[in-house]
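We modelled the chain as a single entity of 486 amino acids. Its sequence is:
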Amino acid sequence: MEQKKHFKNTIITLLMVGALVGFGYGVSTAVKHTTTPNTTVVMNSDISMVPANFSELAEKVRSGVVNVQVVKKVKNIGFGFRQFGNPFGEKNPFGDFFGPFFEGNPPRDFEQRGVGSGFIMSRDGYILTNNHVVEDADQIKVKLANGKEFGGKIVGRDPKTDLALIKISSSSDLQPLTLGNSDELKVGSWVVAVGSPFGLEQTVTAGIVSAKGRVIGSGPYDNFIQTDASINPGNSGGPLINMKGEVVGINTAIIASGQGIGFAIPINMAKEIAPQLQEKGHVTRGWLGVSIQEVTPELAKSFGLKEKKGALVAQVVSGSPAGKAGIEQGDVIVEFDGKEITDSKDLPRMVASTPVGKAVTIQLIRNGKVLDRQVKVGEMEEKVEVAKTHSTKKSLGITVQNVPPEMARGLGLKKETGVVVTLVEPGSPAADAGIQTGDVIHEVNRKPVKNVEDFVQKVEKALDQNNVLLFLQRGQTNLFAAITPK
């Protein structure tokens, strides 16, 4: 009897184990079935969710990254104006990669010393960096990863994109980096920033691409890669590297008040600029001769547009290529040379990169009708030497520069006089007085302003009197602004 009972229990146990095994197999099969070709998410083989380490990548690129040290001889012009030559201005929300050279009140004649980064583009000694790293430098020293040092010279600069090309003597030790394709860079891709933050050479940090096409107000051709790879003062000019070891960007700016937010110039932009810098020392850009603004949903509705896109023409310069082609104020440009204008900021970049003299077709919308216009792209007149910017430490809270030729034409000025406001510090006396970026200052305390240096002198006198009255032009409107210094 006991044997039968034991046999029965054994059979029941075996059946239960079999059932559990079968259930497990069924679950396993079910899991496998969820990864059939119809439902599997295929990951790109080039994308690693979390790379094991960056050692090999860092070792691969380190020999092509350089430390750039500069010395600038500067005169202190008093009352808080400081000549940094930084296109972003001294007091700006994006910070200065180059870092301050001094604190407090320096002597009247002094030397600014700064440290930046760069990377080797060719074996014959060409190195790409940021313009604000080497602008106005009296002495440049380049230090390689192996410790060797060379004297550097500026071959060409482009303040509008904040790029500069320098040259050192050819050396068999030079290891140029491979340039990638920034257009292929995806948001979420891993990248590595290499440079000399705070002067600490060959520092490597990693992160991902946070966004592309960022406009941060540093210039007319903003198109930055945003990354959370840690970058700090001194990283300026250093490369942003993809996981293949290719340069996809040039580290340029940071948001001083934020963490994990840095910006890099796309390498594809540098590919267009560098050859011109090497050949001519400056950049020749195409010119259309229009002032444009963004098409908001409200404007799109007012102009009878089906969607919010294109660049709204606010003004056409008389005698310009656009004027000769019959483009009018109120036209909405939606296509340039076969390329769609999805955002108003696309147009300046497209025009600037177009060869001078090339005939292109512009598609625009006028009164609800789609029209085509043939335009021969002109040449933008630019001064190779760009005026230094100045900002008031004590009082005004603005940064200004000389009026560019294209702006003078657009405003109908007979000559390039006055200064244009390029930055207004939030909460400053200038901001309280309603001063805006783009305002052209013609007078200080009823005295005409010729240029930046003249403006500096007149503001100095006005500050002594604790009374600053500005006469300025905003678009086609003239107005006065009284500023109370703090």
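As a brief sanity check on the tokenised model: The CA atoms of residues 286 and 379 lie 5 Å apart. The two ends are 106 Å apart (CA to CA).
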